[in-house]
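Cross-posted from the bioinformatics board.
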Amino acid sequence: MTKTDQRLAAVRGAMRVQNLDGFLVPRADEHLGEYVPPSAERLAWLTGFTGSAGLAVVLAERAAVFTDGRYTLQLAAQSDASLFEFRHLVENPAPAWIASHTSAGARIGYDPMLISEDGLAKYTEAGLTLVAASPNPVDAAWTDRPPPPAATAVPQPLRYAGKSSAEKRAEIAASLRAAKQDAAIVSDPASIAWLLNIRGGDVAYTPFALGFMLIEADATAILFMDPAKLSPATSEWLGNGVSVRGRDALEPALAGLGGKRVAVDASGSPAWFAQRLREGGARVVDAADPCALPKARKNAVEQDGARAAHRRDATAVCRFLHWLDGAARHTTEIGAAQRLLALRAEAAEFRGESFPAISGAGEHGAIIHYRVSEESDRPIRPDETYLIDSGAQYPDGTTDVTRTVWTGPGPAPAELRDRVTRVLRGHIALATAVFPEGVAGPHLDAFARRALWDAGLDYDHGTGHGVGSFLSVHEGPASISRAGRMVPLAEGMILSDEPGYYLPGAYGIRLENLLLVQRADRPGANKPFLHFETLTLAPFDRRLIDETLLTAPERTWLDAYHARVLDQVGPALDAEARAWLEGACRPL
Amino acid sequence: MTKTDQRLAAVRGAMRVQNLDGFLVPRADEHLGEYVPPSAERLAWLTGFTGSAGLAVVLAERAAVFTDGRYTLQLAAQSDASLFEFRHLVENPAPAWIASHTSAGARIGYDPMLISEDGLAKYTEAGLTLVAASPNPVDAAWTDRPPPPAATAVPQPLRYAGKSSAEKRAEIAASLRAAKQDAAIVSDPASIAWLLNIRGGDVAYTPFALGFMLIEADATAILFMDPAKLSPATSEWLGNGVSVRGRDALEPALAGLGGKRVAVDASGSPAWFAQRLREGGARVVDAADPCALPKARKNAVEQDGARAAHRRDATAVCRFLHWLDGAARHTTEIGAAQRLLALRAEAAEFRGESFPAISGAGEHGAIIHYRVSEESDRPIRPDETYLIDSGAQYPDGTTDVTRTVWTGPGPAPAELRDRVTRVLRGHIALATAVFPEGVAGPHLDAFARRALWDAGLDYDHGTGHGVGSFLSVHEGPASISRAGRMVPLAEGMILSDEPGYYLPGAYGIRLENLLLVQRADRPGANKPFLHFETLTLAPFDRRLIDETLLTAPERTWLDAYHARVLDQVGPALDAEARAWLEGACRPL
């Protein structure tokens, strides 16, 4: 009997205790976040699969793991096909699979802390009977589960945050009162970090402290977090308006809100909150996390911080690209990623990577979320593409940049240059867009695709995501994606612009800069307009660009961008690297 | 006491009988359609306001009429400001207005046949107590209400419909079974007309017969319609699978569906249906009208019909533009619209206009939904713009075309030509778009706006709407509009492409063709792609185009389009008109 056999049997045993015919094991923690602590890696514990999107369904006689196209191969490699069927999350959704393998009225258990009310609705709409399990059968079976993380939370000083927590809380409270809400649940640790001007280290890549918060219409807040994570100085920094209570105090606090109108995000917060609140007699209002939008709109100090962080990051990226230009053929994917990390780490302000770098040579570049491992690592070879998508955390800002280079020494093939140039044209089309207030990311996504679409080509990912300020590299609520929510873009938002093109087995192309939304009022404009300021500073590899395919305005944009890169980054480089950058940034 | 005074008092009297503190009077009929019969013009009867979008709210002591920006002036002119407050439908929504003028728990009446469940939700979400009124207090007070229309319904022959009703019903039934639905309510008369291959004449502009339908998973249907509207031949045409019952049989039929899963469109069907079904023990499923999508995807016969209808229509439009070029300065807005109508009516297949023509000279063109009246009519003058937006119904297709011309004899001002050229560039950008399956109209809308956005300009309407096949000129479910639903564009859909620009008090520009969605697979494409075939054939006024602002591909497109117009329309014209068209269509 394998370890997985034993775990599966133990979970089924715990299910039987609760008379459950099935149980859902999503890859999720209690904050429904992207990066989860080891204590919440239930899916990996049960199935071996470590991808960032997935769900296991355990029935009495069979089980399945669902994931998306990014992870199909990884799932097959990590998980045991004799114990789990492998299914596509979207094409073969779990609710239909469960319905086809259970009889009517079967009791399907779920952990209400690990799924939102909107997530639950997909199951109940399929006619399934969902039952909140307590305890979670995985937790019951997982005897050596790690403790929850307990990293220390620290103040985020005003010189980076730009606005005091008291001021932010007053604004959030005013928005609650305007919506006739008495309080709001905040389950996203990034929102707590933003609102309270604190940062932490409970999960990888995103510098927040795990916890929950109740913000009330009088501008006070209760932070539910192990008080041991807060030093006396941090507790004092939180101020009088914020009281700190342990995680155990959460349920009684919700029970005490009877009769109040409490906002809970039905898609972003665990269903547990609305369930407990309703039980306690509160009136639950489905409303977005009240911090999400103000957090996304960076204030002037945060915008300046973002610019400084990007200049600093650009120095490392340009040094890396220079190094790569000579050393590419003597290193590997891991070697290159480590070199970039080391160059970034030279900055005193460096606080870590903002996500695991994607470092893919040749055919590995075509795997959109490729994560190099010791097993997959390979040399970067002559005359192929190399794609590096990486980012860093600095106290004044979060970065995320992708470049695709040609290793040479021979010239890049014409078809590849055609594809790269189409991706670049899409990148430029979005970067130069001018649009009125009210326009949302899904309305602009096609700008970045048109040059590819014209050739019958496309890429199967969104064009851009929001980016936090020394917070999540993937931050809501806005995005530039067809599947994204209709959140109007607004001044101060930071979004990525990262079209790509992938030829499986051959190469991948992605060109990514971060963009900052700014006012762009035109003389005689008949409404307020916005446009983008490009934050990222790094040359695009001219060996991959077919300049004859660019329009005159596109060429002008690229030359001006390269001149700006040289102007802003050049002075920070040594003579050799500067000379290289001058060549990389000379007009086409 | 004015007539309106008396009517308002009578409605309030009828409200008191039902103990109602308020009552909603939307501009709607029982099909929630765009064109309503005189018997359903309750808003106009009560308030005098005849706009196509509006709502009156009658409270005990005050009343208000809500409409949108299109109708602000018309509302003020038609309605009595001493009896009604005038409010903006979107900026000052009715639910908030009611909440601020009533005490908690006030009973707000509504007619469940005149509002959808989604429409009702806006009121209940504002905390209001909604009460289904019976009878409608307006109907109780409206003693000389006209009878419902009773135009004869006739078969739509297979040579136009392209597919038999039995085949269509089998497909719809299969889709119901796939969704595990036993039956679906169809309240949209256009869906009934499409599914049963019949047409009628109960309302202006759209050739359908008012009625309701229940389609069941066994492919049978019950048509609830006054049998007197169906001749024996039409009854026979409906076939065995369709039974016809009077309107009175509707409620008992719904009551008989206890235990069944019945699909009702919560946004498109009156709330009455779901309410009656639930009362009768049916399980109501919120699902889009099952005919909406297949109706929108024209089959090959309908596509050929559309092409024939557009060639026929183009003959009239080109003759009109030729006539206008000489006569513009001797006619008026009404005169021009009548001339175009007369030219269209020369075709044996002409069945009427598809909507009231918008015929606006100079500053009238800036009124987006301008409808010329005897009072507003004015001469078309030298050296100004003239905008004509019109369409026709033919048994093989529905048309909708807008052109903006310069009356001359002087040259058009440079700023105007700049604006027209930007609108034209937007029109071309959409018309030439190539895009993968799965893309919806809201994703493409920005293509039509970019040239305007670049100059800080925009237009406050959608870019395109669906068009029926000898049916509604505004047909769902797809559209090309930021506010539109996310319905992927699909082969066979017909949509308008009509960007514009409006300078209030000066001029209006709109350039509209209809586009047919077609497959556009490219060699080496990595997924199925679509593109547009332009159906409309009429020259764009070159006097308004600044060709120096066009890119080479745009100019190539325009020259090729004009060559096609000349090729397809020229042979149907007399020598003089053909000579004019040759000039209008010569290369730039």
